[in-house]
Hints:
- With 275 residues, the protein is mostly helical.
- The protein contains six helices and four strands, in the order αααββββααα.
- The protein folds into two domains: 13-39 and 236-273; 60-233, CATH 1.20.1330.10.
- Helix 1 (13-38) packs antiparallel against helix 6 (238-264), helix 2 runs antiparallel to helix 3 (110-133) and helix 2 (49-103) packs antiparallel against helix 5 (191-234).
- It is rod-shaped and about 145 Å long.
Amino acid sequence: MPFTGGARINTNISAMNAVNALNSINRDLGMHQERLATGRRINSSADDPSGYMISKKMEGRIRSMSSAIDNVGDASSTLGVAEGSYQKIADLLVQIKEKQTRFINGAFGSDEKSAIATEIAALASEIDDIVANNKFNGVQLLNGTYSEDFQVGESSAELFNVSFSASVSSASLLGTAAGSITSANVVGLTVDTGIGTVNSAIGAIGASLNRLSAKEENLNNAITNTEAAKSRIFDADIAKEQIQAAKLQILQQTATSMLAQANQAPQVFLSLFRS
């Protein structure tokens, strides 16, 4: 920093030094005040180019994992819709099993047995109705064709498949379609096999829901940790910024005062011209 003895008044070096110092203080003060106002340490790439790039990359990871959590929720909802229908179908199969057992009764005549067969056929028709109406976002789940992937992680390779490959219907579960059930074939209905098929499907759904719960918990932990790492780079330490701002405000006042004194200094040489 240049200095002068002060006897040259055409160029006031002291005032220029004071102005430069004041400008530098004002720039730094403005930066710290902006950080206090926004809560961010990095408000533009010029503040910290590498930190800006790293924090934006982390922000991308956070948003991707947040979307993955939404996908986990959708996958869980899909499984939940299917599970509800499977459970209702299982209840219907239990009722059919009960009536099938009741059917084999030597005390019943043809009318009684025909009535039981009609009840079983109605229950079987309800199974088909449940399958037809079981949809998620307009897509049927239990017709044996549903198989979709959900991205459940940051990477596009982290996929979770939700599928219901077994075709569920009165024909597949009971061995006879609902409209063909009569007194002549009630005894031969494969109810136990149907119950086993549905229970296996419910068990598989439960296992998938447990996996999705674990993935959701893991994603939440990863988001929290990444947010913490991003915050250390991107966010302002309010206490430190306030200390710096207070210091610079004092320096601003002293620099302004020194500028005023530097502007007054050349006037002392006017006394040389007094007689």
